[in-house]
Design goal:
This protein is of the alpha/beta class and about 475 residues long. It folds into 2 domains: about 60-320, 3-Layer(aba) Sandwich (Aspartate Aminotransferase, domain 2), CATH 3.40.640.10; about 325-465, Alpha-Beta Complex (Aspartate Aminotransferase, domain 1), CATH 3.90.1150.10. Helix content is about 45%, strand content about 15%. The strands form 5 sheets. The protein has a 7-stranded mixed β-sheet, with helices on both faces. A 3-stranded antiparallel β-sheet has the order 11-14-13. A hairpin with a 5-residue loop joins strand 15 and strand 16 (about 445-450). Helix 4 (about 80-95) packs parallel to helix 13 and helix 5 (about 105-130) packs across helix 11 (about 285-295). It is globular, with a radius of gyration of 23 Å. The chain starts with a helix and ends in an 11-residue tail after the last helix. The structure holds pyridoxal-5'-phosphate. Pyridoxal-5'-phosphate binds near residues 106, 166, 214, 244 and 270. Pyridoxal-5'-phosphate binds near residues 106, 107, 215 and 243.
């Protein structure tokens, strides 16, 4: 692709937008400049390709397309059918899945689709059969009331939040925690690793309808074969939320027992994290759940976003190219180099390292809360996010951890040598930051003291590290 084609495409788009609302055009340009300048270590972010970005800005945005490919509630969806079918085909081929549903607007939406599909399959369908009804509208008031109670009386077992689980895996502040009676499994306090015997014990005691695996902040692999055996032993449906590590599955870094697709009944994911697509979600499953999953819209989803499905098709086509496997491998190599660099400099890491795309630093070793560390790093041009660590004494708001991930910097082209430089910058900031005090002299969990000159110096060094790896090198907005 000649470099001027990408520049021309984005320049023209901005020109058209500027003619209507220049402040939006300015904000878009400023966002690119900010992304170019910051050392982005947010584990859940990436940089989508120009083709993926451009696939979203077009006439597909104007279409209503409720229904599924070939079975729409609106006329005139033939082109939407084309892109939805393409995205689904790429997803099936990429992940070796029997069925792919590419309509969810995000990871949370994909999880909701999966939960309702499981409830429909395991609770609603049997209730309809018992009542000899074909449809919920055919149930008597009494049977409908009984079914609603039964739907609300199901159990879910998932990873605890402080071990790295996600809020949507049955926690009370989320709708999933209001739908399900939830219990969670943690990690071994000594090793920080999932203890499968403990998961099996919890499953035996709790007898969940759904066993969930998947995480936002667990820096290790999960053995999905063992988790499936546990689910089978108690008759649970096994669901994996691979939102964070889908790129590592796509790139065949996670294979065999560590690839969720052959082991889970249903797999959900985002498309924008390590998979490097547009913001969105997806559900993969076998034929048993496919019909229920297809009802995602309008069951829990608003109308499909055909422009985003077009971008999903583009990004998934990219992920099927041979070079994506190299990218996925480099994500993990970089995370391990970052972890090694931090460990060598004396940092404490949850589980002592990583075998995926993320590293969790326990910043209490630096005398800081996660919030203080996050802000001090941000002052120094390093974008991360605070995160709870197992048995976190500082709670979910201040936390004791910093989560860092390598998908974005790896897309930019940084390698293991630069990861050591990154570890040096992080360690410098954290070791030179101290906790601040409240007006009454007590230790603050939010205030911190960092010499602004040091923050500036690290910011400049971060800029120098990035300078050799231009972001969107073929895009010049002039
Ligand atoms: N599932 C997991 C494991 C996640 O980490 C996240 C996002 O952080 C989500 C689901 C939600 O994804 P989204 O923000 O696209 O709804």
């Amino acid at each position: 692709m000649p470099s001027n084609a990408e520049s021309a495409a984005f320049r023209s788009a901005l020109e058209v937008i500027r003619a209507v609302e220049p402040r939006v055009a300015d904000a878009i340009g400023a966002e690119l400049a900010d992304q170019r300048e910051s050392l982005k270590l947010i584990a859940s972010e990436n940089y989508a390709s120009p083709a993926t970005l451009l696939a979203m800005g077009n006439w597909f945005s104007d279409k209503y397309a409720e229904g599924t490919v070939g079975r729409r509630f609106y006329a005139g969806c033939q082109n939407v059918d084309t892109v939805e079918a393409l995205a689904a085909e790429h997803a099936r081929e990429l992940f070796g899945a029997t069925y792919a549903y590419v309509q969810p607007h995000s990871g949370i939406d994909a999880n909701l689709v999966a939960f309702w599909a499981i409830l429909a399959d395991r609770v609603e369908s049997p209730a309809l059969a018992r009542a000899q009804a074909r449809h919920v509208n055919d149930l008597t008031e009494q049977d409908w009331f009984a079914l609603r109670r039964e739907l609300g009386d199901q159990r879910m077992l998932g990873m605890s939040l402080d071990a790295g689980g996600h809020l949507t895996h049955g926690f009370r502040p989320n709708i999933s925690g209001k739908m399900f009676d939830q219990r969670s499994y943690g990690t071994d306090p000594a090793t920080g690793l999932v203890d499968y015997d403990k998961v099996a014990e919890a499953a035996r005691e709790f007898r969940p309808l759904v066993l969930v695996a998947g995480y936002s902040a667990y820096p290790r692999k999960v053995n999905f074969r063992i988790m499936r055996e546990i689910a089978d032993s108690v008759g649970a449906t096994f669901m994996v939320d691979m939102a964070h590590f889908a790129g590592l599955v796509a790139g065949k870094v996670f294979t065999g027992d560590f690839d969720p697709v052959p082991h889970a009944h249903i797999v959900t994911t985002t498309t924008h994290k390590s998979l490097r697509g547009p913001r969105g979600g997806m559900v993969l499953c076998g034929p048993e759940l496919a019909d229920q999953v297809d009802r995602g819209c309008p069951m829990v989803l608003g109308g499909p976003l055909p422009h985003v499905m077009a971008a999903k098709a583009v990004a998934l086509a990219e992920a099927r190219r041979p070079d994506f496997a190299g990218y996925a491998r480099r994500i993990v190599d970089n995370a391990q180099a970052l972890a090694d660099g931090l460990l060598r400099r004396g940092a404490t890491l949850v589980t002592g390292g990583t075998d995926n795309h993320l590293v969790l630093i326990d910043v209490t070793g630096y005398g800081l809360t996660g919030r203080q560390a996050e802000q001090a790093l941000l002052d120094s041009g390093i974008v991360t996010n605070r995160n709870a660590v197992p048995q976190d004494a500082n709670g979910a708001w201040y936390t004791s951890g910093i989560r860092i991930g390598t998908p974005a910097l790896t897309t930019r082209g940084l390698g293991t040598a630069e990861m050591d430089g990154t570890a040096e910058l992080i360690h410098t900031v954290l070791s030179q930051t101290s906790a601040g005090a409240n007006p009454d002299g007590t230790a603050s969990k939010a205030k911190y003291v960092l010499d602004p000159a040091l923050a500036d110096k690290v910011s400049r060094q971060a800029g120098e590290l990035l300078a050799g790896f231009p972001l969107y090198p073929n895009v010049d907005l002039g």
